[in-house]
Amino acid sequence: MELQSIVAMDGRPLMAESMRMLEYLDERAKTLSPRDISERLKAAALELEGVVASVDEKDARRRPFPGKWHIADVVDHISQTQIRGAEELRHLLSDRRPPGPPVYEALKSGASDWAPWPTLVRGLQDANREMLSVIEIVSAGRGSDSRQHSRDGVAAPTVCTVLVANCKLQNGQIVPQIFIAELDWRQYALLQRLHLLDHRTQIRNLHKALQNFSNVTV
Questions:
Q1: If you average pLDDT over residues 2-22, what whole number do you get?
Q2: Beta 174-183 vs 159-168: how paired, if at all?
Q3: Which domains can be identified in the chain, with CATH numbers?
Q4: Which residues pair with 111 in a beta bridge?
Q5: Taking the model in full, what pTM does it have?
Q6: pLDDT tens readout for residues 163-182
């Protein structure tokens, strides 16, 4: 990955948080085994599901922050991106570049506004299981293990990936920086882990804000 050649979608240089994300993906992909990556991804998925399980259905669509996503939006977003991510990872592990557009950063369906909460939760669990079933194939030593390095003169396949890093401005404001990078399967799988952990924290914060709001208004 040519880190210095990557710029944000607005043409600006990457901020420190964005560079740290890319450096983490690049460095850890070189040192972790397929089993290590699989175990870390599984742990993140289970941790997220545990946080989601603590959410009461009555809170799933309450908005503690006007104009922002509620918890059901976040859960639906993870389900939609995980199932697409599993598909892209399957292509990479079969030595193919995934077809079609990248998985965009705000992807979600309309189901977050109307589907029963248990249905959204099961969708998240099913999407996680699909992602894990793909990564566990290579973790168990079956199938292709596409490396970062070229093999027989042919570079390992990569996928065009939209990344978002939360960056802190000098005034303390947190803003998202969006950029695109070409990732191999290891980097891509590690990014899915970060994605799950980021949204785990988001749901925790939303849940806490809802509880604090309830305590004030009671």
A1: 91
A2: antiparallel
A3: 3-217 (1.20.120.450)
A4: none
A5: 0.90
A6: 999 999 999 999 999 999 99
